[in-house]
Task: inverse folding
């Protein structure tokens, strides 16, 4: 029995050596696969090198993704939008020009429709008119200048243009003497609808007779 055990011992040792020689390459291969999977798995960061880096020029061009071509429908649509914007801009400019022409025609028509000034009485002095407008207002100053030009063109003597800190809410013609009431009424009618007359006979100090004041309303 002891002899058989001694004979079996060397055989088992010999078999163990052979198994070691066969198992070692398999274990190494398995470890290599595990390591490769860990390095190339989803948690691995992508390379910072650009696509096609390190390749020849022709190969790099082939590796790059193709650039998207411009859509002809989009290009045509943009051209249509640009043409429409240009057309609208031309229409706006034409509209502004027409509005200026219409305003000029309206002014000419109003001047032609205004009644002529009454002829002065023999030996009487012409009425003197002072135009008042709101001070520090370019629009009011321009309106007063235009009104004075119209009155002078109709034969009315405009003595001066003056700015005032406070102006009435409606346009008025003021007279300071009873004998000037009729002239004030005629001047208000000549200036157009919406003009009224104001009796300032109680105002002191009174200006000289045959003096009227034209007050433009606040804008």
Result:
């Amino acid at each position: 029995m002891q002899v058989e055990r001694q004979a079996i011992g060397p055989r088992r040792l010999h078999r163990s050596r052979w198994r070691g020689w066969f198992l070692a390459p398999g274990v190494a291969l398995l470890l290599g696969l595990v390591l490769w999977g860990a390095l190339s798995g989803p948690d691995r960061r992508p390379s910072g090198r650009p696509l096609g880096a390190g390749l020849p020029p022709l190969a790099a061009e082939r590796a790059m993704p193709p650039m998207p071509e411009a859509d002809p429908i989009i290009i045509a649509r943009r051209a249509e939008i640009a043409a429409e914007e240009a057309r609208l801009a031309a229409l706006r400019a034409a509209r502004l020009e027409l509005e200026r022409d219409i305003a000029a025609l309206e002014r000419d028509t109003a001047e032609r429709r205004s009644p002529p000034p009454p002829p002065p009485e023999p030996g009487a002095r012409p009425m003197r008119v002072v135009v008042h407008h709101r001070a520090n207002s370019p629009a009011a100053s321009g309106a007063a200048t235009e009104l004075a030009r119209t009155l002078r063109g109709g034969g009315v003597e405009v003595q001066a243009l003056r700015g005032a800190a406070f102006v009435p809410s409606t346009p008025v013609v003021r007279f300071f003497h009873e004998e000037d009431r009729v002239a004030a009424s005629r001047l208000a009618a000549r200036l157009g609808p919406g003009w009224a007359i104001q009796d300032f006979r109680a105002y002191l100090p009174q200006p000289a007779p045959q003096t009227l004041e034209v007050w433009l309303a606040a804008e």
The longest strand covers residues 157-164. The first helix runs from residue 2 to 39. The chain is about 50% helix and 15% strand.
